[in-house]
Structure formats: C-alpha cells, structure tokens
C-alpha cells in the first residue's frame, strides 16, 4: 500500500516539475484580525508593507546585503539572528504518547480499574480476561493509526528542498567590491543550489518556472513573472508580480505585487528577489506558530462515544453496589459478595466496546485504502457516516486547478472554430515562455494539423504594457497573416474592423459597445476572456514590430475557466441523496465561484461574501450558514468561523480543502479531507487524504462510515440491554435465593464466551435503509433501549429460576450447581441468539440475514454453552450435567424470547424509531 502511495505522489511531483518542496508544516489557525484581515499580526503587516515600499538600495542596506548576495561571514551573522529557515511544526507524537492516546478511552480506563481490583482480590482469571480485552483494543488501534500516519508522512518527505542562491565567494575588507564593475563582480559571486533551510534574510535568490518560493521576499527584478497563490488566497488564476510597486498599491501585504511569499509557486517567468524573512518569522511561519500548540477540538464521534460510555458507567455505578449490598446482607459472606459484585461489574460493562469500535473502524480504513484513501485517524471513518454538511474549497478540490478553454466565440457570441484555429497558430508559433492560457489552447490537439498549412514568418513578443502578442504566418500560397491575441481592451485599440458572417464590418461605436458587453457577460460568468484579431500582411514583408499591430480585424473571443472535476457533480449528487448537503467556501471571486457551482449542480443564486461576514455577529451568522450554500472571497478566519458556527448549530461538519488557507477549517471540522496534490499544511491538518482524482470516494466513504457506525451501535445496544437484563435478574434472584444465582467465575466465563461471539460484528451486513441518512451517537436512545429490552430477558430468566427451583428441585445450597448450570445455558444462548433479533429492524432470518461470520459465531457459542455443563470441563467450572427435559424447556424459552422480542421491537420502532 505504501509503495502505491509513494509512486503516485512521486509521479505527481514530476508532472509539476517542482524545484523545491517543503516538509511537514503545522496547521493553520485563526489569528488576530488586522484592519486588512490578512490573518497575521499588525506588526508583521506593517513590516511587510515597509519592505514593499522601501527604495531598493535602502532595503538592501538594512539587510546588510547587495544584489551580489552575501558572503559566508554575513550568512553566519544573519543565521545567528534569524536561525534556520524551517517552520515550527506540530511535534510528532512519540510511540509512548500515541499508545497512551489509543488507551485513554473511558471504558479502557474503567476496565483497567476493574482488572486492578480483580488482581488485588486474587481473581487472576478475571484480571487476565479483562486485561486481554484492553490490550487487544489498544494494540489494534495503535497499529492501524501508526501505519496510516507512516504512509502519510512518507508522502511528505520525498523531494529535496533547494533554492538557487547568489553567494559571494570573496569579500573585500572594505566592501569596495560592491561598487566594482560587472566584470569584476562575476568573479566574486556564484549561483549555488542550497538547501532551503540554509537561507537567511539578505540572501539573493533566483526564481524560475516550477519553483516554490522558499521564503518571504521582495522582488528586485521580474520578467513575465506569474505566481500561483491559490493555496494561500484561493484565487485560481495566477497573479503577476513586478519589481516596481505601482501607485495606489493595496495595503494587504498578500496583494502587494512586489512581494512573494513562502509556499507559493512560480508558474512562469523569472525573477530575482531578496529574502526578507525566513522560517517562523515569515508570513507562513507566523500562521504556523499560532497552531503548533493548538489541540484539535473533540469530534462528534469522540464526544458521542464518551457520552454513551458514561451512560453505561452510571448504570454500573448504581447496579453494582445494589448487588453487593443485597448479596452481602442476605448471604452473610461479604467477601464472596464482593467478588460476585465485581463479576457483575465486568458483566455489565461492554468490555469488548473498545475492540469492537477499533475493529470496525480498522475494517473501514482497509476498505478505503483499496479506494486509494489514507485514513490518518480512525475516528474519521465514523465521522464520515455522521456527516450531514460537507464544506469544500473550490480551487483544486471541486476543480482541476488548471485552465482550459471553455468557449471559442465570434464577436457576436456564437461558436467559432476559426477563432480557435487562429489562437492555436498564435500559441503554437510563439517562442516565449508559454502561459497557462497558451497551454490550454494547445490542449486542443485536433487543431494540430493546421500548423502544416502555415509557416512562421516573425513574431512580436508579449509585454505587460500592451498586454498582447502577435505571430506572423504565411500559407502555401505565400499570403501572410498577422495573428494577435491579448486582453480585450488592448485588442480593440488596434482593431478597426470586426469579422461578420457576410465579411467584415467597420468597428463603429455601436459595435464596439456591443462587443464590450459580450466580453463583460462572459466575465460575469466567471470566465477569463482573451480576444483574437488578424489581418493580412503586405507581400514581401518579413520584419514586424508593435507598429504593425494596427488595422486589425477582430475575430472573436476565447473564454477560459478552471474546470470542475468530472466526478464533482455526480459525487455531490450522491451525497445529497444520502442526506449530506454541500456548501462551498472559497477565497476566489463570486463570479468564478458561481460558474463552477452551477456546473456541479449547486444553487448559485445566493452568494455570501467575506466582507459581509465581517459585519455579522454570531447570531446572524448562525442563521446565514443554514440558508446559504456558497461563500466567496473568504479569509482563512472566515472559513474556520463558518465551520465552527455549523458545528454549534448541531451539524457534523466535514471540510475538504487543499490550500494553506484551508488548514484552520480542516482542523476545526469534525472530519478534515484533503487531496494528495494539497500543500503539506493542509495534508497534515486533514484526517483523510484522497489519492484519487475522483470525488466519488466521498460518497463511498460516507456509506462505509454509516456501515461502521451501525455495527458499533448493534454491539452497544445488544450488549447493554442483555447485560442490564442479566443484572436485573441477579438482583431479583439474590433477594429470594439462599445461594448465588451464578458464581463469579461462571459469570466471567459466560461473559467471555459472549464477547468472543461479538468479535464477528464488524463484518456483519447492514440494512440499506440505515445507510440513507447521517447517523450519530444518541446516549438517551441507548439508555432507553437498554431499559426497554433488558427487562424482557429478565422475564425468561425469572421463568428459568422458577423452573429450576420447582421442576428440577435445584432449591438448596447443595443443589446450587444444577441451578447455576441451568441459568448459565439459558443466559448464554439467549444473549447470543438475541443478536439476530436486534441487529436489524426487519424480520430476522427472513428479510435480513446476518453475515456468515456472525452466524458461525452464534453456532459456536451455542455449542460451547451446551458443552460446558455437559462435558468434561463441568467440574472445573462447578457446573453439572442437565437432565433431558431441561432441553425441551430450553427450546421453548428461546422461541418465546425471540418471538416476544420481535413483537416488542415492532412497537418500539413505531414509537421511537430505529437508528
């Protein structure tokens, strides 16, 4: 499994050509608000803004550096002050800490106390039985979670972390080389590939396409530099960065165009930058530092298990003292009464619960691993089943996180293949670094034969002043054509005509206004629009420049979008059928978000923006999160707040995201879901990591979670009701019978054999109707179920007492072995057979059959129950053979018990329902 995960992850990294990679980072947390809501401290925001606006020479001087970089002495000095360029991360748990975490459940702690009391009272058999249950449950959970965490960690430590750094190899004592001519400086500096952790403030680094930015930096120069910041801001489109800060620059540090931040990556172009801050002092480090000590809030599963556990513990704390007092008072042997009460405590406690829970969760983890899903925390399996709201980021989760051509239209808005043909020739023949838009155009491989009909003549490269580029081609007849592609406004400036169905028309004011309206309508749909124009060239002309981009004929538009994943729409539809509503939480703009949501089937009429959320108090937001399904332009704090509010409203919330800005919400949610292409901070915050692009595994995970929960609940309901009935019978018998109705050892053996039969529960079938709606723990329902069905078994226990006393004469201390043998068999067989009655709301054996492991274990328990008093081991357990007439009575009791239980079950379902 681990090799499969590794191979998939390495292939992904190779496909992206990442130059550097960051090791595991800690989870993001909601931070103090600043006036611009950057999620960082006010002081850090001011420092970043000061660095962005400072003159270059003044900034370099303040960092004790120059464009030629640092020498070794300066590096050592800077490192002494700033430390290594590493991010404070959650400390990995030691094996001891992990083992304690797996052990510290309420029932494990209770059983440990009972085992200790048993050992102190000399009952070594009970000590061994109880200790084995605890050890098995704890060990299984420790092994499964450790295996999953090891696989997840292996994904995050496979790529070397390096950056291209300018370092000086010599240092003039007086620093005169800083003013030396370039010829001299080239001998004093070298570009080195250094580990990212060795960077210090003042280092000069080179950035190129494919690199991830290794620290927070100020650009000194940039050429066609585009950065993907979706992991930080949620915006799907790359952002252009410049060395010069324009007038009216944004105050938000993340939006300053001459700053680049650790964790973002270079899509295209090149740049030279000076490192401002590293490690924990960086933007990302500040976010990470706030959460390194943060504890994950308890999930719905953890809180539910604890509540149910305490319900059962409270019953035990009431019943056990009563058993002790009644038996001690009526029998006069307080030592024997104490041992019997201790055995009752063990019998009343569903000691297999930790193991059943762990085994069912581990089975779910194995199932999901076959679907290429890493389950980091076993509790996440059940949370999948309980989830009724899935909040998801857009970019990279619902979408492919890549640009594609959505439409190719003429100037009137009709589909035009000619526009796509011209754009294909333009993108194919340009020699500059191809942008994501060019890559999207060239993905239309069906247009590739077109290039054979043309030969390239010249090109006019792209620049960000005129925002367009042109290529000149000629056909086989030697007729030349200039093809220009660029921003709509810039193409309109150089166009004087427009292509129409019957030829060309002059581009007058009316047509210009209509064309602009068409482009704006596309923008309103969340599409990025590029215009294409052409014109024929003069014969014999071979050299072209910007001046030749004039008198163009506008052909039409290309509209680009980050497309949704093919599996997104069917996955969300499947979730909706199973009672899970989806809400989109994104940092991208409303128009793009609305378009994607429409494509995946989410109602996009009501969109709530981050700015609106800022103005809401918790009471108003609690109402809004129920009504709206799309939230756009959100900060990390907004996402975390929405998830927290949904949880406060009583929902079990899942969150799926892949960016730095998603980590706080991932940690706050009951179940955090990420993907293998996510940044490390998101993968570490998640409970589950999807390795497959298909989102259909979400619905499969939901169903597996509900199947897991249903089987856990079966065990709790069956065991709690049966054990309560037995103890209730013990109380009645103890008050009237002059001897113990069952010896402590017999009670422990009966309990052990029954628990052995329940080990098959994780593999049982689950009725389809139990998978249609979210399921969660309901302690009140468990208590009611126990009080309702427990006394039913007591009816037949008391019947057995009467028959053994009256019919078979087991009514003296000398005949107590026969009495105890009779109840031992009835108690064990009724406990085992009732499993089939309570495991389903249907008619057992006819409408719903248990899985073969459950049926097999039932037969084994019946055989053991009959053999123990009838076989050679009977004297060892102080049992004795039963007369033949007893077995006639046994069959009648079992049939009557099953029949009455079925009747009462139907009434219970009509009154209270069935979970």
TrEMBL record:
EC number: 7.2.2.14
Record PROSITE patterns: ATPASE_E1_E2
Keywords: ATP-binding, Cell inner membrane, Cell membrane, Magnesium, Membrane, Nucleotide-binding, Phosphoprotein, Translocase, Transmembrane, Transmembrane helix
InterPro entries to which the protein is assigned, alphabetical: ATPase_P-typ_cation-transptr_C, ATPase_P-typ_cation-transptr_N, ATPase_P-typ_cyto_dom_N, ATPase_P-typ_P_site, ATPase_P-typ_TM_dom_sf, ATPase_P-typ_transduc_dom_A_sf, ATPase_P-type_domA, HAD-like_sf
Keyword Repeat belongs to the record: no
Catalytic activity entry: Mg(2+)(out) + ATP + H2O = Mg(2+)(in) + ADP + phosphate + H(+)
Function comment: Mediates magnesium influx to the cytosol.
PANTHER family: CALCIUM-TRANSPORTING ATPASE (PTHR42861)
Protein name: Magnesium-transporting ATPase, P-type 1
């Amino acid at each position: 499994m681990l090799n499969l995960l590794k191979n998939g992850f390495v292939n992904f990294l190779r496909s992206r050509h990442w130059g550097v990679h960051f090791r595991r980072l800690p989870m993001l947390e909601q931070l103090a608000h600043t006036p611009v809501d950057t999620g960082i401290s006010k002081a850090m925001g001011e420092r970043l803004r000061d660095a962005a606006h400072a003159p270059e020479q003044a900034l370099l001087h303040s960092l004790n550096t120059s464009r030629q970089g640092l020498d070794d002495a300066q590096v050592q000095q800077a490192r002494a002050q700033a430390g290594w360029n590493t991010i404070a991360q959650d400390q990995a748990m030691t094996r001891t800490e992990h083992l304690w975490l797996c052990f510290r459940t309420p029932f494990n702690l209770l059983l440990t106390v009972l085992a200790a009391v048993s050992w102190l009272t000399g009952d070594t058999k009970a000590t061994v039985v109880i200790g084995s249950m605890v050890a098995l449950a704890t060990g299984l959970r420790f092994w499964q979670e450790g295996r999953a965490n090891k696989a997840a960690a292996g994904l995050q430590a496979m790529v070397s972390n390096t950056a291209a750094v300018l370092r000086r190899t010599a240092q003039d004592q007086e620093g005169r080389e800083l003013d030396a001519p370039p010829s001299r400086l080239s001998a004093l500096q070298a570009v080195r590939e250094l580990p990212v952790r060795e960077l210090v403030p003042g280092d000069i680094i080179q950035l190129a396409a494919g690199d991830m930015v290794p620290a927070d930096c100020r650009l000194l120069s940039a050429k066609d530099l585009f950065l993907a910041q979706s992991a930080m801001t949620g915006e799907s489109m790359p952002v252009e960065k410049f060395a010069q800060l324009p007038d009216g620059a944004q105050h938000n540090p993340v939006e300053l165009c001459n700053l680049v931040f650790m964790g973002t990556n270079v899509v295209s172009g090149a740049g030279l930058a000076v490192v401002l801050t590293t490690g924990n002092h960086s933007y990302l480090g500040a976010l990470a530092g706030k959460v390194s000590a943060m504890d994950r809030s308890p999930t719905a599963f953890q809180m539910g298990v604890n509540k149910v556990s305490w319900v059962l513990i409270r019953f035990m704390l009431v019943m056990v003292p009563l058993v002790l007092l009644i038996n001690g008072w009526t029998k006069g042997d307080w030592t024997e009464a104490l041992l019997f009460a201790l055995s009752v405590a063990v019998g009343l406690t569903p000691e297999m619960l930790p193991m059943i829970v762990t085994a069912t969760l581990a089975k779910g983890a194995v199932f999901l691993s076959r679907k290429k899903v890493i389950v980091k925390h076993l509790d996440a399996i059940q949370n999948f089943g309980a989830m009724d709201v899935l909040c998801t980021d857009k970019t990279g989760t619902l979408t492919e996180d890549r640009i594609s051509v959505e439409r190719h239209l003429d100037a009137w808005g009709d589909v035009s293949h000619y526009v796509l043909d011209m754009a294909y020739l333009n993108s194919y023949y340009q020699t500059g670094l191809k942008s994501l838009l060019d890559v999207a155009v060239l993905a239309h491989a069906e247009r590739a034969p077109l290039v054979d009909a043309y030969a390239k003549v010249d090109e006019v490269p792209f620049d960000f002043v005129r925002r367009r580029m042109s290529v000149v081609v000629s056909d086989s007849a030697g007729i030349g054509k200039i093809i220009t592609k660029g921003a709509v406004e810039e193409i309109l400036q150089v166009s004087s005509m427009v292509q129409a169905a019957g030829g060309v028309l002059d581009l007058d004011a009316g047509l210009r206004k209509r064309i602009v309206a068409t482009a704006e309508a596309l923008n309103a749909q969340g599409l990025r629009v590029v215009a294409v124009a052409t014109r024929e060239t003069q014969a014999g002309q071979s050299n072209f420049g910007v001046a030749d981009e004039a008198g163009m004929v506008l052909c039409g538009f290309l509209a680009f979008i980050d497309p949704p994943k093919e599996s997104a729409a069917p996955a969300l539809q499947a979730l909706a059928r199973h009672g899970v509503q989806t809400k989109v939480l994104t940092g991208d703009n409303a128009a793009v978000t609305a378009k994607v949501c429409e494509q995946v089937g989410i109602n996009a009429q009501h969109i709530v923006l981050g700015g609106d959320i800022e103005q809401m108090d918790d009471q108003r937001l609690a109402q809004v999160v129920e009504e709206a399904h799309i939230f756009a332009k959100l900060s990390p704090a907004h996402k975390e707040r929405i998830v927290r509010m949904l949880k406060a409203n009583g929902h079990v919330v899942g969150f799926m995201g892949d960016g730095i800005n998603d980590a706080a919400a991932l940690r706050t949610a009951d179940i955090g879901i990420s993907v293998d292409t996510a940044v490390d901070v998101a993968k570490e915050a998640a409970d589950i990591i999807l390795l497959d692009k298909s989102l259909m595994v979400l619905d499969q995970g939901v169903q597996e979670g509900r199947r897991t929960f249903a089987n856990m609940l079966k065990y709790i309901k069956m065991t709690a009701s049966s054990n309560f009935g037995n103890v209730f019978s013990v109380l009645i018998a103890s008050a009237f019978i002059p001897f113990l109705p069952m010896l402590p050892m017999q009670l422990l053996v009966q309990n052990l054999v029954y628990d052995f039969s329940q080990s098959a529960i994780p593999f049982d079938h689950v009725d389809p109707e139990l998978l249609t709606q979210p399921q969660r723990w309901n302690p009140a329902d468990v208590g009611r179920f126990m009080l309702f069905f427990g006394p039913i078994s007591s009816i037949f226990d008391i019947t057995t007492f009467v028959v053994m006393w009256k019919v078979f004469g087991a009514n003296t201390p000398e005949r107590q072995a026969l009495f105890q043998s009779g109840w031992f068999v009835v108690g064990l067989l009724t406990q085992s057979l009732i499993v089939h009655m309570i495991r389903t709301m249907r008619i057992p054996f006819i409408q719903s059959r248990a899985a073969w492991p459950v049926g097999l274990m039932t037969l084994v328990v019946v055989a053991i129950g009959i053999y123990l008093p009838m076989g050679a081991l009977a004297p060892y357990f102080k049992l004795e053979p039963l007369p033949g007439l007893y077995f006639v009575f046994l069959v009648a009791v079992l049939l009557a018990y099953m029949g009455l239980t079925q009747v009462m079950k139907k009434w219970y379902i009509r009154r209270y329902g069935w979970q």
